[in-house]
Amino acid sequence: MIRLIGAGARPGVQHPVLATAWTLPNIITVIRFLGVPLFVWFMVEQQYGPAVVTLVALGSTDWIDGYLARRLNQISTVGKWLDPVADRTALIVVAATFVVNGIAPEWLVWIIVVPDALLILNMLVLFRRPNHLPVSNVGKVRTALLLVGLPLLLLHRVPGYENPGLLLAAHVLLVLGCIGHLLAFYGYFTEAHRQYRRQARVDGAAG
Question: Is residue 67 part of a domain?
């Protein structure tokens, strides 16, 4: 799993951070974001098969854009905040759509939304603005678990795939993903306070 997370990185090579937003990984991220409304439309029409394919595509491109950014030396300032924002937005919309359609319980949305809302509020209190923290490995694993568990949960609704084992696997992955989400929340919350304290020391020394 860790190798997959860092795939594309070259040992000992420092990747420059580009100022431009026009990179291939960012374009893929935007395309992934635009796939979310397509998924919602399939769900409204109860076309669960195409919806599963769309979800798989969303999850795959989440890994692909990170791989290409590292492999092609196209890590950018915009990409550092665009990718996690696209991931969070997609997860919230997908989870909410599942709940509305009676496929997932309400707690799935609350576990995803409430920690994210608290993080944003925490950033506003500390820094008076949203402050995007580097994505942790726990956060990346969390996202991967949710992006695998959600398609499996939906696949159970596709005719021919009504397998109890599939449903069990989906719930296990989602529970693990939710636990990872809470762990990632704790990590980001404490890191924000560490950054605030470091900044306060710098400002105090400068004053």
Answer: yes
